[in-house]
Amino acid sequence: MDETYLALTDRQEPLTAAGRKSSTAKVLVVMAVETLQPKGFGRIRLRRIANDSASSVIPCVQEAVEPGA
Questions:
Q1: Least crowded by CB within 10 Å, which of 4, 9, 61, 69?
Q2: What angle do CA 2, 30, 50 make, to 5 degrees?
Q3: How far, in Å, CA of 59 to CA of 64, rounded?
Q4: Which residues are CB-neighbours of 47 under 8 A, at least 6 positions away?
Q5: Which pLDDT tens digit goes with each residue over 3-44?
Q6: What letter does residue 51 receive in the DSSP assignment?
Q7: What is the phi-psi region of residue 31: left when phi exceeds 0, alpha when psi lies from -120 to 50, beta otherwise?
Q8: Measuring CA to CA, how many Å separate 37 from each of 27, 33, 65?
Q9: Is the pTM above the cut of 0.70?
Q10: Where are the alpha helices (DSSP H) in 1-69?
Q11: Is 20 exposed, middle or buried (0-12, 13-18, 19+ CB in 10 A)?
Q12: Domain residues of the chain, as ranges?
């Protein structure tokens, strides 16, 4: 599990005289990646969270990670 910011660009903005105008916003997401043996990846879960506080991250961990893992 980890968290990161993703930059999202709105490409639906209208064209201007100088070309395409786009707006970019950053959103915070938490991700969980299942690791498979001997090596490789399985399922991936992503969720947008409001902030990186424990009250935002812990519920995501509890839903994505099997107890005892």
A1: 69
A2: 130
A3: 9
A4: 29, 30, 31, 60
A5: 999 988 776 666 665 665 667 789 999 999 988 988 899 999
A6: -
A7: beta
A8: 32, 13, 17
A9: no
A10: 54-64
A11: exposed
A12: 2-64
